[in-house]
Design a protein that fits this description.
The protein has about 130 residues and is an alpha/beta fold. About 25% of the residues lie in helices and about 30% in strands. The chain has helices at about 25-40, 85-100, and strands at about 1-5, 15-20, 45, 55, 60-65, 70-75, 80-85, 105-110, 115-120.
Amino acid sequence: MQLDYIDHINEYDDNIVRLYDFNSAEAAKFREIIEKTVILNKKQLDLSTIDFIEARNCRLSLRISEEDEGITTADKKQFFCDLTIAGYEKMVALLDQFCTKETKGYQFLYDIDSQTDFLFSPAGTW
């Protein structure tokens, strides 16, 4: 599984942080780690510390927040995804389709009007 950042993906100057290049087993492990670390234990999760995720040009930490804010950054290297527990529960539900079978589809992991989206895509496309 690869983690990277892509700047300026459209005419609105939007960006994406992308998790890609994975199979259903890795998707299931990723879902389980979010459930255990963030939702159950209520702890921050730095994705670059997960052994099967290769952080290419950025780092992303999942943090619990009072409001669903999405992904933010100050330097385009270290990113923070700030969501409520309910926001992470929705994210986990969106991951389900990738955990049961191999797919070429993709999913944005939250629906928030923010500059940076969070893309989950086995093939890396959207």
